[in-house]
User: Fold these one by one.
Assistant:
Number 1:
Amino acid sequence: MKSAFLSRSELIGFAILALVIFIVLPMALDSFRLNLFGKYLTYAFVAVGLVLCWGAGGILSLGQGVFFGLGGYCMAMFLKLEASTPENTSIQSTPGIPDFMDWNQLTELPLWWQPFHSLAFSLFAVVAVPVFFAFIIGVAMFKRRVGGVYFAIITQAFAAILTILIIGQQGYTGGVNGITDLRTLLGWDIRTDEAKEVLYFVNGALLFVVLFIAQFVRKSKLGRLLIAMRDQEDRVRFSGYDVASFKIFIFCLGAAFAGIGGAMFTLQVGFMSPTLVGIVPSIEMVIFCAVGGRLSILGAVYGALLVNWAKTSLSESFPELWLLGLGGLFIAVVMLFPNGLAGIWTEQIEPRLKALFAPSSKTKATSQSTPAE
Amino acid sequence: MNVPNERFILKVEGLTVSFDGFKAVDDLSFYVEPNECRVIIGPNGAGKTTVLDLICGRTRATSGSVTFKDKELLAMREDQIVHAGVGRKFQTPSVYEDLTVFENLELSYPKGHGVFGALAFRRDDAVRSRIQEIAETIFLEDLLDEKAAFLSHGQKQWLEIGMLLIQDPELLMLDEPVAGMSVAERKKTAELLRRIIEDRSVIVIEHDMGFVADIATRVTVLHQGKTLSEGSMERVQNDPKVIEVYLGH
């Protein structure tokens, strides 16, 4: 039945993705490459959020890096404080505070850093801080009915503002270097190969939680409302819905997903910096989503994996060509495959597979009713 | 104007909207009684659609007042006006093309209109049977699983009328409901509209005079944002001013 949580083909899609993430990749890759793929998967969190906001709801945000970064920084602040014990930092003029603060002549930990001594608070903040900012931006924009390209440009401006803010306030944020030299999580060394493997699986599991939440939203009436809003916003409004509150909700949900991805990035890669927050990474995130297929949450995961893998491989051999390649890829997707990889799957491959398998299986069941074929 | 409150379901008084100095609707007043079918006619650019836009909150008025059952609509948001009991059909069929007929009707079902209400919304039997009932009324019961994009123009108009019916508004506003329909569709629509206007107040914009004569309780003729004439169809048709600016063409 259509209203079921997962249709048969979606169930198969989820199962294949689980197979790829939890079995194929860990078996096929050494721990260095597996960690790289773990990093790519953190972008999949953002891409899934973009499928809901952009693909379903028609809200294009070019500032998802902001939320990815906020989540990542919240995690990094906790890890940095744990790494900055008085013993580890005894050579500083003020031991016990993060090294970059000491370099910038700060003599005590700023008040707003204090709560990040607590892991519980930090994990809460990983989701809450991006959602809070998304809510502020959402209320300011959607209540005024700012949409389309204007919204995209404004979110891009936010990405620029946050980058400038982080770089400018280096005593508090680590500046352009970011927050580096992260070591342990509650005493557990996150830099070992073993820890990175564990984190990879935690990351994969969290991604599936996010995918299930996204699937639930898509299958709910709210998911259908998003599509309706994308097509006929006025009709939705005059059917008695406050359109702005739905947009704010889905934008906040996308921000929460991005924040979790950012935190997992920090844990797996071991640092967080403003280069991951700004305009370029934010646009790259949209490209992951577009390449994967902006209507498909599973497609978004593959898009994030594929584009990042291509980026690593290509920029290892031809560093100067990568940006051109990425731009070309985006144009190709928009012009030739507007529904991305997922579209190629559902429009090209799936019908052929069905044609391949259907006749033999169908003839048994309905052989007498289809003599013509 | 001293008009007793309880007699009218909708009171429009001194309604004015000015776009950069151009008054599309100029000091307009009219009153609609319960169960009345009011038809607004007038030449192109008379401000007919703008009047509906003002009542349902799509366009903000410059001055004046619109009272629906003692509630001032001009201060309310569009969705609040809908919840107060005013439904609006647009001139071009506005349906959700990527969704099925069933889903189109379901989204208009008056339940689960908040964010979390929509997340928790379940298709129970009450919803299903109501949608089935409406689909039969609008001749689409065999097309419930069809995407709205594949419907004909006339079917899309019926679907949008159905989306309004499921809201069960006390005041229904229809903007040219039979425009662009084939003769057969037009006949079916007229029959449909006659059935649904019975137990509610309706404001219709329409050019088809035969159709107007058929359904109208009273007719308001608009010209340059003002009332040119008002009354029964017969009276309006014989008004020399109306013949000059509108019917004479």
Number 2:
Amino acid sequence: MTSTLLEARQIHCERDDRPLFSGLDFRVGSGELWRIAGPNGVGKTTLLRILAGLNPAFEGELLWQGEPVHRVRTQYQANLLFLGHNAGVSSSLTAYENLAGWQAMRTPAVPEQVMAALADAGLSGYEDLPAAQLSAGQQRRVALARLYLSSAPLWILDEAFTAVDREAVAQLEALLANRVRAGGAVILTTHHRLALEGVQVLTLGEGYDAV
Amino acid sequence: MWQWFHKLGSPKWFFGIAGRLMPWLGWSALIVLTAGVVWGLLFAPADYQQGDSYRIIFIHVPSAYLGQSLYVAMAVAGVVGLVWRMKMADTFIASATAVGAAMTFLALLTGAVWGKPTWGTWWVWDARLTSMLLLLFLYLGVMALRGAMEDPDVRARASAILVIVGVVNIPIIKYSVEWWNTLHQPATIKVTEAPSMPASMWVPLLICLLGFHLLVAWLILWRMRNDILLRERRARWVRDWVLAQ
Amino acid sequence: MRSEPRVPVRLQEQEGGWPRAAVETVRREWLIAFRNRQDLMNPLVFFVLIVSLFPLGVSPEPEFLRQAGPGIVWVAALLSILLSLNLLFRNDYADGHLEQWVLSPQPLALLALARVAAVWVTTVLPLVLLVPVLAVMLHLSPGTGLVLVLTLLVGTPVLVLVGAIGAALTVSLRGSGVLLVLIMTPFYVPVLIFGTGAVTAAVEGASITGHLALLGAMLSLAVVLAPLAIAGALRISVSNG
């Protein structure tokens, strides 16, 4: 029995005077794993950013638990985890400081949890290195470590598997599956072929009319 | 009333109405302005203090007034655009900016022309001219910001915010510049005339004011129609209209 | 990577505490400033350089410097602030932290106010503390120097608050900081006028309470309104991604 978390109604979006998508209806409930698919440039990232509330350049409605997002913005953002193209990791701060800072914005920081999350993301031993000295893949892991600290019911992940090496891909897939089984909801895009069951797919570019 | 307001947001409707209004505005602007300017420049009596050089106020006062009120109108449009998400609001801002800047520049120019015979210099840092100069900078700032942004939606919202913050500042700027001016020039002849003007002077002034309003309205509607055609160029009604020309 | 989630799914009914988020915002700003402390020198050096140009370029006569000094210091401070503001949000925008910050579960305007306050302490307060030294170089009397510091203490927060609006609007744009200077200068003029006006009044022996009160009023207005504009501008710039 899933409850609807995020609902998008009749979303119409343009870019460079071309309609990207029109009349898009989309509903995500707890326990659902969604993948937004489509060719490059079709607007997957744009749609994700609209759903995350970062991009207001659309027509239509976006509802969080039945309420328009612009009216319950802080509540929506308290229940949302968004990972974009950029890791959001500051190069002057260490991996630990980056993650602890992110957590401290949401709940009182608990150092043991932060260390454990970094270890979960495969960064044991790298916690105190300035992020500038980490590789791109490691910086991405700092961002992914947030998944282990987040109680948010909705995760929106853009290019979830970017810069994740092959062994970790299977584990990340399992994490997402377990999360969804535990009642969370995930919307993601990826170029990687998901080896998961029960993934619902929303394909852009065909089946959504350009006006 | 709300219905009319929402109609205003439709580019096609606005284009049609503006198209019908423009000839009226254009011709009446021409007639009224000619009448006002000719009356003021040629027939109104000379000022006993400043002689004939004061006549420039028939151009200076309307352009200064419009330079200011256009900025305020742009700020109102900015609020409308942000709150009601109307693209037409940004069309107005895009069209009015250049006209407002031109009016402000004209006010500065005519202020200088007035200053030369009165004080012997082309420029003087008095309160009104300095405020006008800062207003021109505000306009230039909006133009520069818009020029640096390509995405039309981001550009619309960003310039709306800049114009709204600017309008809040205008009274602050005016007050502080006036205060600054009294500090540095205790005995100043103000660029604006004292209100005790005889009817033979303020009647042509009012006519010029009206004429300038009509002219500015015509200019802005013209620019707005062009902007609409550009924005909506993929729509069928635009194609039909262009083909019918 | 671990494949079991650690933290259970929990629906938050209310937003996270904003005092803690504000404190964390300040803490992070100061930590990064400390890590890059050599960069903090730049606005200071620029400030002193600009001030030094005037004796060199105009006249080193004590009479001239005494009269022009307060204005020179104010203009130099204004330009230094604009220079540092240009970088205010840029790093965060580039590495993606800005969009995470904008997605924080607290009112963004409050966080913006905290951030600006933190930036004022790290970037502007050192400038103001340097003013007594500059006052000596410009042959200003100690009393004048003190009033100058006072007006800067009240006026520069206004400059930072209003300038942050421009910084937020232009953060996603390429190009030099000239655009920011062009946009912000008209807004800075009232602060400049009353700041220098106060010092002039002090030199003439008149009371400065009126000027300080006006500067204080501008500060109150800026504290209340600017954060809202900064938050709106940040959201706009982040959507440009």
